[in-house]
Structures are given as C-alpha cells and as structure tokens.
Amino acid sequence: MSSIPAEPAAPVLPKRRQSVVGAALFAAASAMVVVTLLGHYMTVRGGSDTFFEGVSMPLTQPNVMFWGLGLSVLSMQWAVWAIARDERHQAYWAIGITALLGLSFLNSTWYLMAQSGLAVGTQAAAAPTFAVVGAHVAMMVVALGMLAVMAFRTFGGQFSSRYPDGWSATAVYWHTMVGVFVLVWYAVYITK
Amino acid sequence: MAVTDTMVEAPPEPAELPAAPAAAPVEAVRAEITAVERVIGAVDHKVVGRLYLVSGALFAVAAFTARMMGWAGEGGNPMLGTWSAQVRESADVAVILLGLMPLIVGLAIYVVPLQVGARGISFPRLVSLSFYGWLVSALVFAASVLGDGGLGGKSLEMNRLGLFSLAAGAGFVLAGMIAVMTTVLTLRAPGMTLARTPMFSYSILVTGAVWLATVPAVFASAALAQAGRLDAAALQVQVVDQLRFLGWQPAIWMIAIPLVGLAVDVVPVATNARLQQRFLFRGLIVALGIGAFGVWALDLEVAANTVVWSGQATLALLAVLATVGGLTPALRRSQGLPGIPVSLLGVLTSLGLALLAALVGFAAALNTLGGDEEGLLGLPTVNGLIAGQANLVLGAVVSGLLGALAYWGVKITGKPSAKLPPAFFGLLAALGGLLAGAGPIIDAVASVNGGDGAEVGSSALVAVGSLVMAMALLGAAALIILEGRTQGGPSDPFSGHTLEWLTQSPPAPENFEGPLPEVLSASPLLDAREAGTDAEGIVQ
User: Among candidates A34, A65, A73, A62, which has minimal Cα distance to A172?
Assistant: First the structure.
C-alpha cells in the first residue's frame, strides 16, 4: 500500500480581525481629514457670495464618478466573497474591475479639476475645493495601493477561506473611501 | 466475495516525517545581533515603548524649555527678540502633539498589551515605524523652529517644513495609538470582555477614538496651507490660528482622559479594595471623551459662545468630579496608604489638578452666558481662564504620567522605584502646572470688568511653570535611563489586580510564560488571592 505523502504543518495564521480593525481605525482617521476639510470648505463657501464665480463645474463627471464608485463597492465585496469561498478566478475578475473603476475615478477627477477653471490665488473656491478633492483623491490612492498589495499577494497564493482578512480590511477602507466621496459629491458638486 | 461487499482495509500508516533540520539555537542567533541592531530592529512592544518613553520625555523637556523661553518677558523674550512669538506658538503646540501625546502612546505601547494579557502588540512593525517616524519628525520640527520656521516663523520654506513635520509626527503617533487600540479590541486574553478590560486600557481606547477624530485636523491644516500656496505671513495667521484649538478647551482634555483610567486602576490596588460600579467609571471615561471632542471648535471666538462648548465644559467637570467622588470611599476605607503611596501621590495630585482645571473651564463656560464683551464674570469670551485651564491640564498630565511610571516602573526597569524621587518629580510637575495655570487665571481675575490685567506676571508664571515641568520630566527620564533594565524584579510588588502583575518584571519577550487562565472578572489576580489560589487556580 502506498503511503500518504507527509504534508508540512499548516502555518500559524495571524489572529483574525486584527487587520480589519486596524484598517477600520485607519479609515476613520483618513475620513476625518476629509470631513474636517469639508467643514472648512462649507464655512468658507457660506461666508462668500462669489465663491464659485468663474468656475465651471458640470454635474456629468461627478455623477459618473458617483455611480462608478457605487459599482466598485459591489465589485470589492465580490472580491471578498470570492476569496472567502476560494473562488480565485472570480476574485481576479473582481479585483481587476475594482481597480479599473478606481483608476477611472482618478481620471475623471483630474479631467473635472482641469476643465473647471479653478485657479489658486484668483478664486476663493480654489484652495478649499482643491484641498477637499485632493484629500479624497489621496484616500483613493491609498485604497488603490492597498488593492494592489492585496492583489499581488493573492496572485502569489496568499489569502483563502482560511484567512481572508487582508481583503476584508481592504474592503473596509474602500467602502469608507466611497462613503466619504458621497459627502464630497453632495457638498462640493451637487450643492455648489 | 460479492461485489457489494466492502473490503475493509487498515488505514494507511502515517508517513514518517523527515527529521527537521536542527534549528539554530536562539541564543546563538541572538548573539550575532549587535546591541544597536537589537534596538533599531526591535518589534517587541516593550523595547519600542521604552524608547518612546525616554525619547518622548526628552522631547517634552525640550518643548517645555522652549515654551519657557517663548513665554518669558512681555511682548518678547529679550534673549529671543522677534523670534519669541514664533517659539511660543511652536512650543505650545509641540508640547501637546510631539511631547505629551508620544509619552502617552509610549506608556500605552508598553503597558496595555500586558494589561489585556496579549503576547505582543498588534502591528509590531507599524509600532516601530511609529516611533522612528515620530522621532525624525520631531527633530525636523525642532530644526525648522531654529531656522525661523516652525509655526509662525518668517521663512516660508521653514514654515512649510515645520507644518509638514508637525503633521507627520502627529500621524506617526496616531499610528502607534491605532496599534494599541487594535490590541485592546482584538488581542485580549480569553474571557476578558471589554467590560473586564482594565480601566487604563479602556481609557486608552477612548483616548484613541478622540485622537482619531482630532489629530486629522492637523493634516487638514497642512493640506489647506499647501492647496492655498500661502506665503509666510498668511501661514503665520491661518495655520497658527487653526492649530491653537489643540491647547484649549475642549480639545485639551484629549490628553487627560488616560488620567481617569490610571486613577481607577491604581486607587483600588493602593487601598486594597475591589473596584465597585465599574460600568459607572467606564461611563465617566466615555463622558470625558465626549467632552474632549474639539475639532469643531477651531475658532474659539465663535465656538465658546455655543451651547455645545459650555455643555462639553460641564461634562468634563462632571466626569472628573464624579471620578474623584467615586474613588473617595475606597480611599476613606483604606487603613492608611499601605500599598503604593508614591504612585498614588502622583495619581491623586494629577486628579486634583484635573479637577481644578475642570472647575476653571466651567467658570469660563459660565462667563459666556453673559455675552461677547462683558460675560457673566465680567470677562470677554476668550480670556485667561481658558489658557490657565490648559496649563493646569498640562501639569495634571505630566504629574499623572510620572505617577504611572512610579506604578509600572518595576515592569519597565525590573527594579521597584525608589520611593522619594518619583514622588518628588510628580509633585514638582504638579507645582509647575499650578504655577503655569495660575498666571493666566490671575490675569483673568485682574481683567474683570475691564481691569488692566496682569499680562507681565502671567507670562512669567507660565514660563516658570513650564520650566518646572521640564525639570520634572528631565528627572523622570534620567531615572529611567540610570536605573537601566535588570531581570528578576518582583513580579507583583503591590498586590495588583490586573494581568500585568502576573508576569515577571520586566516581562519575558512573549510577555507571559505558559497559557493564561481564563479571565472571569475585572480583577483576576485579586480573585485568586481571595480564593487562596494563584492565578492559575492552584490552591496555595
């Protein structure tokens, strides 16, 4: 009778939920930066009658960005779902789509700011708007960075139903970033 | 044999596992690591915590000394000339963000994992990064102040460098706090619910939550300055104004929240009493946390005239007052002060100073009821009471931290602290806080109903008080450095109640040897003593 080949002992996994809790706390701190800036933005805007004078801020791009990020919430959660069920093929698709939606968001923001006509020093709206939008873009860059790191680790064979926490942590940060964008979308683009 | 018969085979023999290659003895590997590598590459929370404590104390000494120089002399220290205001503004903020907050984080990094029964800290490499990042940022900030930048300097580049390093330093400190909070939330010992978590650890959790909501304002300020491409003059006005809120009510309370947790942990041990109504004290810690949420009050002139500001001042007073009231029965019941009078002295002094600060803050809130120009107490909205209260809180925090070092010092150095020096330094810090607080309060009293005030004397008292606090911190840092770190100290010299007293002093690399017993109450070691067993449940 052939003997069963011996397998090495399973590696000791980090304690569950650590990364998720850490990411949630980090996300809260990041969100507070944008929310604080948003508070400043609203204060400055409320005290000026000519805040947006000479500024062109159409709603098309912000709305596309809004729906795009809404979709990315689904695709990110799809990635978490797939990893937790060892559906790696689906996970790769979900990661790719999420990354694409994130990059397209950055592209849209860049275009919107470039064609808005905002210029620091000549318009009251410029500095507060750039600060708010820039801080949120920084959140998106961090989220994409986390996504990239997790994607490389997943391609390398890490994360599975035994330990999906890395993806859960990334999802927590991603969803917070999208939640913060909803505030920015409403306060900066819709109610301008 | 019919085809439906099942052939039963003996299960396969497990394969022989090849013998694992002989692991290099840990001692041999350790011997190859130099002392410098051991410190720089350390991810042990105890090593990083100790580094944080010593470096934080030394930076706080520098910041308090700079504060003394900035406040000495009306309208500018003759030694500093026009540099005076810039040094004062920079030191006022740096004392909090780069001095006392790192000290609190350092203490939390060292003590909290031990208190909650964790084998280590969450994200140990992040903790290490937090320390070195803060250290570099603090040094760069100091350099920017020397280069006429910091906060409110005249050099644009140095101003930007100062603001960037301040934001970066605060961010690194916050990262350390996030690691501690995650440890409390995820690495507690079996059976230790959040309700059974030691009060100091619980207060650190609440403190961290308040910091998470407050420190990002520093980043926001830096982002606005960068986005607006402000020149040096605009930076002086805008950024300094935006960051002043850190030193005023309500945000100043964010560094005092751990004092409540510390007192609620130390007093029962010192008086050999079991803490009753723990939920009440948890509520008081949360109440003080709510009272310390101050990121909304960037413009004090506007904020101080709101109901929320007055409400927060009242809440802070109630929280501190109720803490003192709640601990009084235990102190009264005790037969003298049998356990740990040195640390108790520091803790009680700091709590008393915090109560005084809360009363002064409440008086400032009462004053706003009368309107902008002439308040109920005959003072304008922004007056010396607010600055005096902040100085009292600073004194309370320094005194409390020194009390904490006297209490947990044996875990840090392995030696029971000599009784006199820590008590002396704790009292010295309290005296410094009292002097620094008294200055602006005297100025406020002299300004009632349009009086002339006492600005010169007030500034001088703030300067002297800051110097005294610097000396107290310097003494404490010297004590930690000179006492060194020796193995084999008493594990539980005070008959403690919580898990940090279960391990040796200083603790082993993995904190605890062997499995921990299930925690069935908030005072597991006291339970064991009362049951006549040791912590593992073995009858003695």
Answer: A73
Which of A17, A25, A127 lies at the smallest CB-CB distance from B181? A25
What token pair was written down for B173? 């400190």
- In angstroms, the separation between the Cα of residue A125 and the nearest Cα of chain B is 10
Give the distance from residue B457's alpha carbon to the nearest chain A alpha carbon, in angstroms: 37
Please give the helix or strand (H or E) that residue A44 lies within, else none. helix A18-46
Contacts of B13 in chain A (CB under 8 A): 3
Q: Note whether B224 contacts A28, CB cutoff 8 Å.
A: no
Within B336-454, residue ranges assigned H as helices are 341-367, 384-413, 420-446
pLDDT in tens, B330-382: 877 765 554 456 667 888 899 999 999 999 999 999 888 866 567 788 888 88
Q: Give A87-136 pLDDT, tens digit per residue.
A: 989 999 999 999 999 999 999 999 999 888 887 777 778 888 999 999 99
Q: Which residues of chain A have pLDDT under 70?
A: 1-16
Q: Among candidates A133, A148, A158, A155, which has minimal Cα distance to A102?
A: A148
Residue A128 contacts B, CB cutoff 8 Å: yes
Q: Which of B474, B499, B396, B438 is nearest to B104 (CA)?
A: B396
Q: Do A131 and B229 count as a contact with CB atoms less than 8 A apart?
A: no
> What ipTM was assigned to the predicted interfaces of this complex?
0.86
Burial annotation A181-191 (CB, 10 A radius, 16+ → b, else e): beebbebbbee
Which pLDDT score is estimated for B372? 58
Output phi, psi for B299, to 5 deg: -100, 100
CA-nearest of B10, B163, B216, B481 to A139 is: B216
The token pair at B98 is 């780069």
User: Exposed, middle or buried by CB within 10 Å (0-12, 13-18, 19+), for B455?
Assistant: middle
Of B25 and B94, which is predicted with more confidence?
A: B94
CB contacts of B510 in chain A (<8 Å) are none
CB contact (8 A) between residue B181 and residue A36: no
Tokens found for residue B469: 């606090």
Cβ pair B12:A5 closer than 8 A = no
Express each pLDDT in B224-278 by its tens digit.
888 877 777 777 777 888 888 899 999 999 999 999 999 999 998 888 888 888 8
Quote the crossing angle between the two packed helices A126-155 and B216-227, to the nearest 10°: 120
B311 to chain A, minimum CA–CA distance in Å? 21
DSSP B6: P
| A36 has a chain B CB within 8 A of its CB | yes
* Yes or no, beta carbons of A32 and B213 under 8 Å apart: yes
Return the number of CB contacts < 8 Å for A and B. 96
pLDDT per position as a tens digit, B433-480 = 999 999 999 989 888 887 777 777 888 899 999 999 999 999 988 887
* Burial of A60: CB neighbours in 10 Å, binned 0-12, 13-18, 19+: exposed
Tokens linked to B361 = 């803050």
* Residue B478 pLDDT: 87
Strand, helix or coil for residue B533? strand
Instruction: Compute the distance between CA of residue B317 and CA of residue B355 in angstroms, rounded to an integer.
Output: 7
Assess A134–B contact: CB distance below 8 Å, yes or no.
Answer: yes
CB contact under 8 A, A26 and B181: no
